[in-house]
């Protein structure tokens, strides 16, 4: 392959999906070790707590691995194979990448709202007492401490101990060692990593940025230079210098892509490109899936104009509260506003929208219904209820269907 090979837009999409583990359905039942391997392939697994359908990190893994016990994610974290920190946003990260993020912990004041330097200065005594409590009594949750009755209700109105814990987490003095009912459990970094030495093990910022750009390129597979920095939310990234070095080292090659122009391909995909397999995977994606978390990239690569509307007032929403993109055989063809009623064991599809120009074929109807069934069954539903959808879909699916094992 030459440096200036021309690729179709469809091929570019397929290469990105291959890099993300979404080109073809899983070939076997998921295994425990696949959790770490899957996060390793993506580099990052973004954390979000919204549970209207399934919490985002569980869903991102399901899209790639198929059905698996959700507790495997927490068990992988507790085993030490993953850690939590601010990367794209709050993320599960392979533990071997801890040195890449350590420089952020050492200068937490640069994290913006994630670290309140004034709060830390004003509450030094209480924070020291909290650290001493953890040292003597072991890991803690925010829920272990009584609420401050004077704290006003609201999203950001955390009780004092919650603020202490989050600031200590951002500063790297505490680590999340497990989750209980998805609540963070914090312990001292010195107890979790007693042999860590910043001078010996930490990367400086420049070294870390180089490594993060390399991870981003591998996990994207194919990319424009402007897409790289967002993956780890890098504010000062020497993109052109990194691309020049990476090309010289043979890590990436220049390609021309239909409609998109010059792009870069990670050379780990060259063997795949020689015999490009057909995209056959159909699945639901989380709003925080790496494929769509960069809204500009999703628009440029997939022509998918997407935003998350759970933080938008209900009357201003266009599609719904927690809308799931539908990936079908290499393209984003629809979106679903869904809700899981666990008591009734029902997956409720409040609305189903097709993307402009999507043709409804029998293959599409069959693939998407099977994908919905797989997801619903994984979530413990026994039936699916469709409240709103295009007439052609309802004619094929009906408003309610039972899920067959």
Can you offer a commentary on this structure?
With 405 residues, the chain is of the alpha+beta class. Helices cover 38% and strands 19% of the residues. The strands form four sheets. A six-stranded mixed β-sheet has the order 10-11-12-13-14-15, sandwiched between helices. Strands 1-8-9-7 form a four-stranded mixed β-sheet. A hairpin with a 4-residue loop joins β12 (331-341) and β13. It is globular and about 65 Å long.
Number of strands: 15
What proportion of the residues form beta strands (DSSP E)? 15-25%
Give the spatial strand order of the biggest sheet.
Answer: 10-11-12-13-14-15
Number of helices: 17
**Integer-rounded radius of gyration:** 22 Å
Question: Short description, anyone?
Answer:
The chain has 405 residues and is α+β, with helices and mostly antiparallel strands. The protein has 17 helices and 15 strands.
What's the topology here?
Blueprint: E1 5-7, H1 9-20, H2 33-42, E2 45-46, H3 56-65, H4 71-78, E3 82-86, E4 90-94, H5 98-106, H6 117-122, H7 124-137, H8 160-170, E5 174-180, E6 183-188, H9 189-192, H10 198-201, H11 205-220, E7 222-223, H12 225-228, H13 239-248, E8 252-257, E9 261-266, H14 270-274, E10 282-284, H15 295-302, E11 323-328, E12 331-341, E13 346-354, H16 362-378, E14 383-386, H17 391-397, E15 400-402
Parallel strand pairs: 1-8, 13-14
Antiparallel strand pairs: 2-4, 3-4, 5-6, 7-9, 8-9, 10-11, 11-12, 12-13, 14-15
């Amino acid at each position: 392959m030459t440096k200036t090979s021309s690729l179709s837009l469809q091929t570019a999409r397929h290469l990105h999906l291959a890099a993300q583990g979404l080109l073809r359905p899983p070939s076997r039942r998921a295994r425990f070790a696949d959790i770490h391997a899957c996060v390793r392939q993506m580099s990052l697994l973004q954390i979000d707590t919204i549970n209207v359908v399934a919490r985002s990190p569980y869903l991102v893994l399901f899209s790639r691995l198929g059905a698996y016990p959700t507790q495997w994610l927490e068990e992988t974290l507790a085993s030490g194979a993953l850690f939590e920190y601010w990367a794209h946003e709050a993320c599960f990260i392979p533990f071997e990448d801890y040195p890449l993020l350590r420089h952020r912990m050492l200068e937490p004041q640069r994290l913006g709202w994630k670290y309140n330097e004034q709060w830390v200065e004003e509450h030094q005594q209480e924070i020291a007492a909290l650290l001493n409590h953890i040292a003597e009594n072991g890991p803690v949750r925010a829920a272990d401490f009584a609420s401050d009755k004077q704290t006003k209700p609201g999203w950001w109105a955390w009780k004092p101990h919650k603020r202490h814990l989050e600031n200590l987490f951002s500063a790297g003095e505490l680590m999340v060692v497990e989750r209980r009912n998805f609540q963070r459990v914090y312990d001292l970094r010195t107890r979790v990593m007693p042999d860590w030495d910043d001078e010996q093990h930490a990367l400086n910022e420049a070294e870390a940025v180089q490594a993060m750009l390399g991870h981003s390129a591998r996990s994207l597979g194919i990319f424009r230079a402007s897409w790289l920095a967002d993956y780890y939310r890098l504010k000062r990234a020497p993109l052109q210098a990194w691309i020049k070095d990476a090309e010289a080292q043979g890590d990436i090659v220049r390609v021309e892509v239909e409609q998109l122009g010059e792009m870069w391909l990670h050379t780990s995909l060259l063997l795949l490109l020689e015999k490009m397999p057909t995209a056959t995977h159909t699945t639901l994606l989380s709003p925080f899936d790496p494929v769509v978390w960069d809204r500009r990239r999703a628009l440029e690569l997939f022509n998918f104009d997407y935003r998350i509307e759970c933080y938008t007032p209900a009357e201003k929403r266009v599609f719904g509260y927690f809308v799931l993109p539908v990936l079908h055989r290499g393209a984003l063809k629809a979106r679903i506003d869904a809700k899981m009623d666990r008591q009734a064991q029902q997956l409720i599809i409040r609305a189903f929208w097709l993307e402009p120009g999507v043709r409804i074929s029998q293959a599409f109807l069959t693939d998407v219904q099977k994908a919905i069934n797989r997801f619903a069954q994984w979530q413990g539903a026994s039936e699916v209820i469709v409240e709103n959808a295009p007439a052609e879909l309802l004619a094929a699916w009906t408003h309610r269907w039972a899920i067959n094992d």
